[in-house]
Amino acid sequence: MPKRNLKKRIWRARQLYLLLILPMIWLMIFRYVPMAGLQIAFRNFSNRAGMWGSPWVGLDNFRKFFADRQFTSLLVNTLRISLYQLSVGFVIPIVLALSLNIMTNGIFKKTIQTLTYIPHFISVVVLVGMLMQLVNPIVGLYGTVCQMITGSRPVDILGNPAAFPHLYVWSGIWQSAGWGSIIYVAALANSDQQLHEAAQIDGASRLQRVWYIDIPSILPTATILLIMDAGKVMNVGFEKVFLLQNSLNLRYSEVLSTYVYKKAFGAGIPDFSFSTAAGMFNSVINLILILIVNRISKKLSETSLW
């Protein structure tokens, strides 16, 4: 009976399953088939011998990566930027969504939503160009204002290594906070209005209603998004980091993704096996983190991805 019922349900939803065929084909071709290339991390890859003909070296590439003098600094830089971005970027969209939900003036609310959504559609290259023009110490807005106030040329922010994480994270917050708040605004729109009415009758303030009604209503959504973000802790955006890098801020801006790229394509003699091992290490750490966070979330709140 269960098998027959399953077949009936599949047949009733056959059109939906047909729609899934193309995405599944795309997923197999571009996500699963390339995983065969991970074996390069365990081989001494040679273009002449190819992936299957290159000699097997086991974990030698991983040992070489862990023994690299830059390994510790790469790991610290990646975690510093990623955890900074996670801690700030997770909270601000929630605060923005709660603030938008409180607003009663429809025109003002829509204006704020539009202004916060627009930066999401700016490409990374354009965003970096805007940043460079803005913080330029000579001709940028930052430099012009400082020269008007102090009469002297200010410090070059892009050349200050310690300023790089702040510049990276807060420019990303400006670009993505509005877009990230959409899912929370939708969750708040589906919250039970009868709870708000009952709380108002009992004399609850707006802040109390936010704390005891609005936040619990979006907590499951926030938990799922936090678990997904935990699986991307080691994935600091390559494009923006690479475009903002220079010889002065390299001490704080060199992360795993840029290091892998330089080893694979920027070196005089490309080392594809070494860069594949570094990238695989990155992915394994992300997998472990998402499993741990998902397990903790399931125990504490009974909300999890699986």
Give me a quick take on this structure:
The chain is an all-alpha fold and 306 residues long. Helix content is 71%, strand content 0%. The two termini are 26 Å apart.
Structural topology:
Elements: H1 2-12, H2 14-19, H3 21-32, H4 50-53, H5 60-66, H6 71-102, H7 106-117, H8 124-134, H9 141-150, H10 164-180, H11 182-189, H12 193-201, H13 206-230, H14 238-244, H15 250-253, H16 256-266, H17 272-301
Helix pairs in contact: 5-17, 6-10, 6-11, 6-13, 7-10, 8-14, 11-13, 13-17, 16-17
What does it look like?
The chain is mainly α and 306 residues long. The protein has 17 helices and no strands. The protein is globular, with a radius of gyration of 25 Å.
In CATH, the topology of the domain at 60-117 and 182-301 is named MetI-like fold
The quaternary structure here is single chain
Query: What structural class do helix, strand and pairing data support?
Result: mainly alpha
Number of strands: 0
The coarse overall form would be globular
The number of helical segments is: 17
Compute the average pLDDT.
88
Distance between the ends = 26 Å
Please outline the major beta sheet. Answer: none
CATH architecture of the domain at 60-117 and 182-301: Orthogonal Bundle
Q: Roughly what fraction of the amino acids lie in strands?
A: under 5%
Which value, in Å, is the CA radius of gyration? Answer: 25 Å
Low-pLDDT runs of 5+ residues are none
Order of helices and strands: HHHHHHHHHHHHHHHHH
Q: Would you identify the CATH H-level superfamily of the domain at 60-117 and 182-301?
A: MetI-like
Helix percentage: over 70%
State the name of the first-level CATH class of the domain at 60-117 and 182-301. Answer: Mainly Alpha
